[in-house]
Write a structure and sequence with these properties.
- With about 270 residues, this protein is an alpha+beta fold.
- About 45% of the residues lie in helices and about 10% in strands.
- Strand 3 and strand 4 form a beta hairpin.
- Helix 1 packs across helix 3 and helix 9 packs antiparallel against helix 10.
- The radius of gyration is 22 Å and the shape is elongated.
- The two termini are about 45 Å apart.
Length: about 270
């Protein structure tokens, strides 16, 4: 990936952009963090230099990702607050062990862990059921699970309600981009939006389900899943804050029975 060589924007300008992404006025934000609107205006325009404490207070209220908080602090001439530990570092061993434990405990149902760009970090054995018919080149690391889902040589031909699922994934990316302002996610969204649609558009008629299922034809037959996403609740490390677990649950009794049978009963 090409390194970004652009000059970082001033801290005040970055804070203003985050405030606008959260659709807050200067008055609203100033009241919430107990500062004057005039001071906030001076910070955003560069007429006043924000302190570390003020940046942290604003970032907490605006729910700015840890990676972006470090960028703001550096732009203000301050030391970064959060470490970014590599997944292979010894310090990550306990967290990754917890991830592996959760993935294994979810069997016989599929589950996987992803990084901030939806690249697969780990997966349990049950995920193989969903990847058996995928083109091998899409399974070469780093494996992007959203590309895997929508690529014409990936899961797309198997997904029965493809157009619904495609819309859900693109909306999910839009939300992630809004929350993080991540250029890598924006590029991924553009790529996925350019994929041609699947011939499958067989969403069930009648009353809409309470949650959108993933209905997919597998080597074990047609299965239906609901998904949940789990994140670490109190991360102090950038890498850990950007890890997420996506778990698949049977959306009907048939899928439950098939997966339990394949998993040995359990």
């Amino acid at each position: 990936m090409q390194q970004d060589t652009r000059t970082p924007e001033p801290a005040g300008q970055q804070l203003r952009q985050w405030r606008e992404r959260r659709r807050l006025s200067q008055l609203q934000l100033a009241l919430e963090v107990e500062m004057s609107t005039r001071h906030l205006s001076f910070v955003e325009t560069g007429r006043a230099q924000p302190s570390r404490d003020l940046i942290i207070r604003l970032a907490d209220y605006l729910d700015i990702p840890l990676r972006a908080r470090n960028q703001i602090l550096l732009a203000a001439g301050l030391a970064p607050e959060f470490e970014e530990t590599g997944l292979s570092a010894p310090e990550m061993a306990d967290a990754l062990a917890a991830v592996e434990h959760l993935l294994k405990a979810h069997e016989p149902f599929p589950a996987l862990a992803v990084d901030r760009h939806w690249n697969m970090v780990a997966a349990n054995g049950a995920l193989a059921l969903l990847t058996e018919q995928i083109a091998p080149h899409l399974l070469v690391p780093p494996i992007n699970v959203l590309r895997l889902a929508l690529h014409p040589e990936g899961l797309a031909p198997q997904i029965v309600n493809y157009e619904q699922w495609r819309g859900y994934i693109l909306h999910r990316l839009d939300r992630d981009i809004e929350m993080t302002s991540d250029a890598g996610l924006a590029a991924l969204r553009d790529e996925l939006a350019g994929y041609q649609g699947s011939a499958n558009d067989n969403a069930a008629e009648g009353r809409a389900p309470i949650a959108l299922p993933l209905v997919i034809d597998t080597v074990a037959g047609r299965l239906s899943f609901m998904t949940t996403v789990t994140v670490f609740g109190t991360p102090r490390d950038i890498t850990l804050s950007e890890l997420a677990l996506e778990t698949f649950f049977p959306a009907d009794a048939h899928t439950m029975a098939v997966l339990r049978s394949l998993g040995g009963g359990g």
